């Protein structure tokens, strides 16, 4: 349909689509004159490895939050359904996702209003979420889906808060000449967390399903 709807031009002038090189550039991060030369220089591998050590206090909590968060998303959501309510099983799953993303959106937009300095509290609370929702899968002690909605919203709030506060803290705490590398390196934490969660949640989900629990 793309080639049918859009007409091919009779002539194509390549030069019109070339963006000319310009010496005028501006950095996304604030720079000071005394550190300008350091920022422009490339960090060696040894320097990068040394810089990773002080970043661990930011990256480890973020990674743990994402492990717990995506274990819930990938391993438990499909098992947290309620029978004989106004929503079908598929609709419940979809609304869990909407609810989760709403929590993430709210918390990622809140750093200018509410800042969290103790990042380690976030993975602890997210692990409490994992424990409650895992227990619900086995014991079915929560009587109402609205309570699950509240927990899922809380999960999203914690995940978004961990992400935005981690990078906010790095941007505030790390020296200007190392800030750009530090911000980019810290993104590894959430990617690793999601990957570990996927590796754990798939066999865990399959194992739970094989138990033939009473739903």
From TrEMBL:
<keyword id="KW-0458">Lysosome</keyword>
<dbReference type="Pfam" id="PF02487">
    <property type="entry name" value="CLN3"/>
</dbReference>
<feature type="transmembrane region" description="Helical">
    <location>
        <begin position="55"/>
        <end position="72"/>
    </location>
</feature>
<dbReference type="GO" id="GO:0007040">
    <property type="term" value="P:lysosome organization"/>
</dbReference>
<dbReference type="GO" id="GO:0012505">
    <property type="term" value="C:endomembrane system"/>
</dbReference>
<protein>
    <recommendedName>
        <fullName>Battenin</fullName>
    </recommendedName>
</protein>
<dbReference type="InterPro" id="IPR003492">
    <property type="entry name" value="Battenin_disease_Cln3"/>
</dbReference>
<feature type="transmembrane region" description="Helical">
    <location>
        <begin position="119"/>
        <end position="139"/>
    </location>
</feature>
<comment type="similarity">
    <text>Belongs to the battenin family.</text>
</comment>
<keyword id="KW-0812">Transmembrane</keyword>
<dbReference type="GO" id="GO:0005765">
    <property type="term" value="C:lysosomal membrane"/>
</dbReference>
<dbReference type="GO" id="GO:0051453">
    <property type="term" value="P:regulation of intracellular pH"/>
</dbReference>
<feature type="transmembrane region" description="Helical">
    <location>
        <begin position="146"/>
        <end position="168"/>
    </location>
</feature>
<dbReference type="InterPro" id="IPR036259">
    <property type="entry name" value="MFS_trans_sf"/>
</dbReference>
<keyword id="KW-0472">Membrane</keyword>
<keyword id="KW-0813">Transport</keyword>
<keyword id="KW-1133">Transmembrane helix</keyword>
